[in-house]
């Protein structure tokens, strides 16, 4: 019976984190879990392929192609969630004695750059995907269209851009004193 009150802030979140942020957090968490599940399946496939290659000279056909295409998608799934929970690598040596206002301003700038990078990756990823689709390029062993793998990365990059841009506002809305830096997953 420890349910939060409606409208109450989740423990550990930035004070400027609003209802839209929690929806974005839930969506990015679901995408990150999907990426994690893809990695688990890839590990299982690799084990089956390696054991099959060593014991029966029968690896999984196209295992390297599957690994490359699927790992690219899975990696793109984690960026937004990591940023929303404050899991980015930060070197706070220079800001250890800075005020909370200064730290929020710098974090807002970092989030802006993160969001712009996500938008650039989504834009150029889409352009590359369309060019690959037009060229009809396929993988060598399985014959799968390469553009599909690139298309699967784009939602992760779009969510990365949205997370970065949302966190700009969350940092700017946070009060200067007593603000917590991380979001509870």
Automatic annotation (TrEMBL):
According to Swiss-Prot or TrEMBL, what is its membrane topology?
A: Multi-pass membrane protein
Please state the span of the N-terminal signal peptide per the UniProt entry: none
- Which GO molecular-function terms appear in the entry? transmembrane transporter activity
Q: Where is the Tripartite ATP-independent periplasmic transporters DctQ component domain?
A: 43-168
InterPro entries linked to this entry:
DctQ
Coarse class of the protein's main subcellular location: membrane
Q: Where in the cell is it found?
A: Cell inner membrane; Cell membrane
Q: Name one GO cellular component term.
A: plasma membrane
List residues traversing the bilayer. Answer: 30-51, 66-84, 105-124, 144-168
Q: Which UniProt keywords apply?
A: Cell inner membrane, Cell membrane, Membrane, Transmembrane, Transmembrane helix, Transport
Function of the molecule: Part of the tripartite ATP-independent periplasmic (TRAP) transport system.
The subunit field of the Swiss-Prot or TrEMBL record says: The complex comprises the extracytoplasmic solute receptor protein and the two transmembrane proteins.
Q: Which family does it belong to?
A: Belongs to the TRAP transporter small permease family.
The protein's name: TRAP transporter small permease protein
Q: Source taxonomy lineage?
A: Bacteria, Pseudomonadati, Pseudomonadota, Betaproteobacteria, Burkholderiales
């Amino acid at each position: 019976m420890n349910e939060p009150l409606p409208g109450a802030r989740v423990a550990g979140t930035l004070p400027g984190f609003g209802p839209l942020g929690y929806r974005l957090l839930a969506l990015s968490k679901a995408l990150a879990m999907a990426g994690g599940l893809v990695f688990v399946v890839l590990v299982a496939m690799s084990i089956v392929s390696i054991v099959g290659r060593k014991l029966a000279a029968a690896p999984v056909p196209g295992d390297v192609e599957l690994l490359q295409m699927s790992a690219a998608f899975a990696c793109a799934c984690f960026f937004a969630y990591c940023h929303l929970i404050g899991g980015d690598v930060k070197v706070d040596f220079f800001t250890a004695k800075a005020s909370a206002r200064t730290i929020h301003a710098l974090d807002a700038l970092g989030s802006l750059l993160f969001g712009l990078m996500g938008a650039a990756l989504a834009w150029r990823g889409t352009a590359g995907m369309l060019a690959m689709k037009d060229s009809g390029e396929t993988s060598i062993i399985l014959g799968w269209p390469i553009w599909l793998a690139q298309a699967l990365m784009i939602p992760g990059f779009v969510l990365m851009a949205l997370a970065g841009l949302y966190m700009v506002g969350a940092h700017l809305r946070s009060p200067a004193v007593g603000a917590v830096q991380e979001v509870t997953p």
